[in-house]
Every structure is written in structure tokens, then in C-alpha cells.
Amino acid sequence: MLLTGDYAKQYKTNDNFVKRTGSFVYYIKFNQTKNTAVTGLDNLNLRKALKAAIDTKSLTEHVLSNGSIPAEGFIPKDFVANPDTGKDFREDAGAVTAYDVAAAKKYYAKAKAETGKDSFTLELLNDDTDGSKPTAEYIQNQWQTNLPGVKVEIKTVPKTSRLELNTKKDYETQLTAWGPGYQDLTTYLDTLKSDAVSNSMGYNDKAYDELITKAAVDYGTEPLKRWNTFIEAEKLAVQEDAALAPLYQNALASLENPQLKNFKRYPYALTALKYVYLEK
Q1: Which of 51, 78, 186, 240 is most deeply buried (CB count within 10 A of its CB)?
Q2: DSSP state letters, 88-124
Q3: 121: which residues sit within 8 A by CB, 6+ positions away?
Q4: Range 5-278 classified under CATH 3.10.105.10
């Protein structure tokens, strides 16, 4: 059983408490197509303001408290390595998102000037899974406190309903997560292509699509060029276009019997149980 929130705090001093970094990145989706006359989410500076106004360190330390770490981008730490040097992707790419209230206020002022609006009302869609409600409430507080004039209404629905609304693009902002299906950068970055079903937020940058295509087609047999092209693509989508706001990379906190042997977790799957056994 994975531990989150109060359970993680309660058992973190237990001798059997084990914490590992996972590969799911939790983030905020900005829908650039729905109700934008009210939300303003088609405005780049507003999205940049909302992204910079979230203190993700405080979120992970004081709200989640389960070992999750602030996300520095859409690609998680300890997932893939440079084919030449062996350096982790996050080390090579650096952080493409950061908490900066001063910068957020500057972006916000520009957004108000560009839109002619003094306030923005945003709906934040989340679901009823463990940890989602306190995270949504934290985001609501951060936006309303750091960006006066922003009002956030939280909409909590069952996870299946959230996924349906996501597919229909029937939301404004959304608390969601993405995890890998396989161990390659495309498992994350392909989801932001303009024609990707998983995009569902109206993000459409021709330059981004071209970078992803170039990495796949032109540099399919040139690993280092492919690597550097993906670094450029992530920076474009997250830092320059503010298509989404990365929040945190999950942690897997649990109580594990020390007699359980050959129990392994991988960055692209939760567990491997084939050879697990209890030592007597």
C-alpha cells in the first residue's frame, strides 16, 4: 500500500518505511480554447503568471509530505540519461519552471494590460483521488494570494468523470498527472503535439511539432542530436509557451517487510512481482 498525506507523516519514522522517487509528474493543464474571454488562458503572460505563482517546494514539504519533489519540468528526474555522458535529463536540461512571485506579478500586469481585464475567474478541475483535494486547495490559495484579482473555483469530480471532461476539453484549468508507458522521452513529449489526443488543452505550436518530428525522423540514428532536440522542445513548451505548470514528481512511500526479497520498482512501471518471495 502506498502512503500519502497524513499516513505518510504518521509512518515515516517506522522501521519499515521506504521512500522512492516515482516517474509521475503532476501538473496543471491550461485549456487555451474554452471560455477564454473570461479565463484569459489564451494569453501567454497570464499562463506564465499562474505557473510562476506556485510554491511547489512548500506544496511537496507541507501538503503532500510523502517524499514527492518539486518538478523542474515535464520530464522527471532519474528517468533517462544522456546517451553520451550518462547525465540525467534534468541535469542537462536544467529547470524550465520556477516559483518566482515577483516575476509572476510582472507577467500578471502584462496580462491585464493585454486583455483589458482587472480580474480573472478560473475553474480548477480535480478528482477525488487521495492527495488531489489538498493540492487543489493549495493551488487555489497560491493563485488568489499571489495574483490579486484571480478567483479560483474548485470543481471536484470522480476520476472517471475528470478524464471524460478532459477528453471533451470541457474544463478551464485541470490538476492532472502523466506517467511513462516506456522508458523514452517521447512517452512525455509526444503528448504535447498539436494532434495528440492527450493534448486536450489547445496547445498548438508549429515549432514544437517540428522539433518532435525532427527528433523522431531526422535524428533517429543520431542519439545525441535527438537528445538535444528534446531538451529544446521541452523548454519551448514549458518555459516559453507555458503550456502547462509542472508541480511535483511523485514519491512512492510505503511500509515494506524486510523479509520481502526481489521486490523492485522501475521508472516506467510500479512493481515487478515475478520473483518476489518472503524470506523465512
Answers
A1: 51
A2: BHHHHH--S----HHHHHHHHHHHHHHHT-S-EEEEE
A3: 38, 39, 150, 151, 152, 153
A4: yes
Q: Give the burial class of 199: count Cβ atoms within 10 A of its Cβ; 0-12 exposed, 13-18 middle, 19 or more buried.
A: middle
Q: Give per-residue pLDDT as tens, 251-280.
A: 877 677 676 666 665 555 555 566 666 777
DSSP state of 76: P
The answer to whether 107 touches 52, Cβ cutoff 8 Å, is yes
Task: Report how far residue 4's alpha carbon sits from residue 60's, in angstroms, rounded to the nearest whole number.
Answer: 11
> Given the C-alpha cell 514519491, which residue does it identify?
251
Amino acid at 266: Y
User: Side-chain half-sphere of 171: how many Cα atoms within 13 Å?
Assistant: 29
218 CA to centre of own chain: 28
The model's pTM is 0.88
Q: Is the dihedral of CA 149, 96, 128, 197 positive or negative?
A: positive
User: What single-letter amino acid sits at 277?
Assistant: Y
pLDDT tens by residue, 111-121:
999 999 999 99
Return left, alpha or beta for 29; rule: phi > 0 is left, psi -120 to 50 is alpha, else beta: beta
| Residue that has been written with the C-alpha cell 517546494 in this structure | 57
Query: Where is average pLDDT lowest: 60-64, 154-158, 257-261?
Result: 257-261
Q: Domain limits of the chain?
A: 5-278
Pinpoint the alpha helices (H) of 12-152: 36-39, 44-52, 56-58, 89-93, 101-115, 132-146
